[in-house]
Amino acid sequence: MEWYGVVLACLAAGALIGFAGGVLGIGGGLLAIPLLGLMLDMDQQAAQGTALIMVLPAVLMTVRKYNQKAKINLQAAGAGAAGSIVFTWIGAQIALGIDPVLLRRIYAAFVLSIALFYFYQSRRSEPRQSRPQAPRRNVEDFHKGWFALIGTVAGLAGGIFGVGGSVLVVPILTTVFRQTQTGAQALALTMVIPGTFVALFAYAVHGQADWTIGVPMALGSIFLVPYGVRLAYSLPEPRLKLTFACMLLVIMVLLLIKA
């Protein structure tokens, strides 16, 4: 394929992934990684590093749009970001030393566990008259140290898998901290922004980031992110969780095909 064909394909793929990331609050990276491995035959580490190039501007755009819908608590997000930075670097060093096939299989298991959790959550979220709904909590009700601890978990996952820290944090925020799905997605993405810079630097230093692929995907992704965020706020929460789970299952299948 000619170079301009590759660029156009990356722009189109980035746009679709950006839309999915806006809806699901994952920056699109979870979907980009298996596609890069499957379509371009990238090793897992190279796919993760390249996906980070696309993810970073998409995450920034998604957070901006979420914040326009409902203000994000920057103190809680900052505490989480502080906790994530060092552990993102540690996670990236672990990932860069693992066999690519083994890392892909571990990633698939990680994605499957999150998908099963969201299937469970989508069923529990269906309204039932026999069960009272637990009240939502405000972020301000919790000590910022809790968010710093959550940030370490997000950082370690984001470093090992390139992306995915926010995916792991969202269910913690919705269950333990009783946040709405969209509120949890917004806060989780804001937490992982500094860690995403750290992860991209770590992968790029080791030559595991293809900028000729990642940059056009990044440009494509930012065009449809606002529409994805708009759809996320229009969907009922159980349906959003079910959509999230279905998307993760598709990702897992793509990963296993490549593995």
UniProtKB/TrEMBL annotation:
<dbReference type="InterPro" id="IPR051598">
    <property type="entry name" value="TSUP/Inactive_protease-like"/>
</dbReference>
<comment type="similarity">
    <text>Belongs to the 4-toluene sulfonate uptake permease (TSUP) (TC 2.A.102) family.</text>
</comment>
<keyword id="KW-1133">Transmembrane helix</keyword>
<protein>
    <recommendedName>
        <fullName>Probable membrane transporter protein</fullName>
    </recommendedName>
</protein>
<feature type="transmembrane region" description="Helical">
    <location>
        <begin position="76"/>
        <end position="96"/>
    </location>
</feature>
<feature type="transmembrane region" description="Helical">
    <location>
        <begin position="239"/>
        <end position="257"/>
    </location>
</feature>
<feature type="transmembrane region" description="Helical">
    <location>
        <begin position="213"/>
        <end position="233"/>
    </location>
</feature>
<feature type="transmembrane region" description="Helical">
    <location>
        <begin position="146"/>
        <end position="174"/>
    </location>
</feature>
<dbReference type="Pfam" id="PF01925">
    <property type="entry name" value="TauE"/>
</dbReference>
<keyword id="KW-0472">Membrane</keyword>
<keyword id="KW-1003">Cell membrane</keyword>
<feature type="transmembrane region" description="Helical">
    <location>
        <begin position="46"/>
        <end position="64"/>
    </location>
</feature>
<keyword id="KW-0812">Transmembrane</keyword>
<dbReference type="InterPro" id="IPR002781">
    <property type="entry name" value="TM_pro_TauE-like"/>
</dbReference>
<feature type="transmembrane region" description="Helical">
    <location>
        <begin position="7"/>
        <end position="40"/>
    </location>
</feature>
<feature type="transmembrane region" description="Helical">
    <location>
        <begin position="186"/>
        <end position="206"/>
    </location>
</feature>
<feature type="transmembrane region" description="Helical">
    <location>
        <begin position="102"/>
        <end position="120"/>
    </location>
</feature>
<dbReference type="GO" id="GO:0005886">
    <property type="term" value="C:plasma membrane"/>
</dbReference>
